């Protein structure tokens, strides 16, 4: 889920708004920013992909290939996923 120019300070700010420990972002060497929550989704077949029809728009696609949510960045998409799936604030 790596995103350009994310610093630890920015991630710390994002994590303040994520009430669930499993969803908090951390750096994974060789991958980028991720969370336990995203890794579970990823391992079950979920992906974040850039829309072919709308460049600059990122899609959360479930294991069946259905688009669940979209946003203008991977981090914004992740925040939506946390709020949508986990019920965060």
Give the secondary structure arrangement, pairings included:
Blueprint: H1 8-16, E1 26-28, E2 32-34, H2 36-43, E3 47-50, E4 58-61, E5 67-71, H3 74-86
Antiparallel strand pairs: 1-2, 3-4, 4-5
What would you note in describing this structure?
The chain has 89 residues and is an alpha+beta fold. The longest helix has 13 residues, at 74-86. Helices cover 34% and strands 21% of the residues. The protein has helices at residues 8-16, 36-43, 74-86, and strands spanning 26-28, 32-34, 47-50, 58-61, 67-71. The mean pLDDT is 88. The chain starts with 7 loop residues before the first helix and ends with a helix. Strand 3 (47-50) and strand 4 form a beta hairpin. The protein is built from 3 helices and 5 strands; from the N terminus they run αββαβββα. The strands form 2 sheets. Strands 3-4-5 form a 3-stranded antiparallel β-sheet, with helices on one face. A two-stranded antiparallel sheet has the order 1-2.
Summarize the structure.
By secondary structure, the protein is α+β, with helices and mostly antiparallel strands.
Supply the key terms.
single chain; 89 residues; alpha+beta; three-stranded antiparallel sheet; two-stranded antiparallel sheet; 3 helices; 21% strand; globular
């Amino acid at each position: 889920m790596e995103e350009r120019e994310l610093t630890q300070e920015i991630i710390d700010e994002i994590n303040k708004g994520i009430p669930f420990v499993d969803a908090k972002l951390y750096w994974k060497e060789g991958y980028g920013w991720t969370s336990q929550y995203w890794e579970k989704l990823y391992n079950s077949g979920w992906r974040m992909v850039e829309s072919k029809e709308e460049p600059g728009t990122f899609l959360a696609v479930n294991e069946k290939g259905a688009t669940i949510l979209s946003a203008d960045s991977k981090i914004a998409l992740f925040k939506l996923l946390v709020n949508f799936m986990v019920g965060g604030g």
